[in-house]
Amino acid sequence: MTRRKKNLSHLELVGTFDKDPAARRGEFKLDPIGPYRTTSIIPAEVWQEVIAMAPPGVLTVADAGAVELVVRMLIDLRTAKRPTPALCTALSTVLYRLGMTPVGRAALNPPEIPKPDPEATPYAQFLLP
After folding, report:
1. Nearest alpha-carbon partner for 70 in 41, 46, 39, 44
2. How far from the centroid of its chain's Cα atoms is residue 9's Cα?
3. pLDDT digits 0-9 by tens, 68-79
4. CB 50 within 8 A of CB 67
5. pTM of the model
6. Nearest partner of 77 among 54, 105, 53, 50, judged by Cα
7. What is the dihedral of CA 39, 107, 63, 72, to 10 degrees?
8. CB pairs under 8 A, 24+ apart, for 1-9?
């Protein structure tokens, strides 16, 4: 049986991040979820929906097959009268591996977003430090 991961507050208390700052997981900046419900079954529209839901900087060209799999499973899920548990489990697994669930995002290391140069923008006074 595997050991469970320690939660973030415990790791901060014991000083893990003081010893190894690289051990800290990155934070994704995502828009909060709102009144969003799409029932489209057109593959091109579902593809764009999946791309829009993905965390920025995570999906690449190499993930096209996985995105197509998600698109096909979402269409099957939306057109089924009674979705099967196997379909729901497979969809949640693929979404997790693409970083499209809270736990999946926690397991990813997001790409570093460069900070804007304060002299290059006329809005430098409004930027947070």
Report:
1. 46
2. 22
3. 999 999 999 989
4. yes
5. 0.59
6. 50
7. -30
8. none
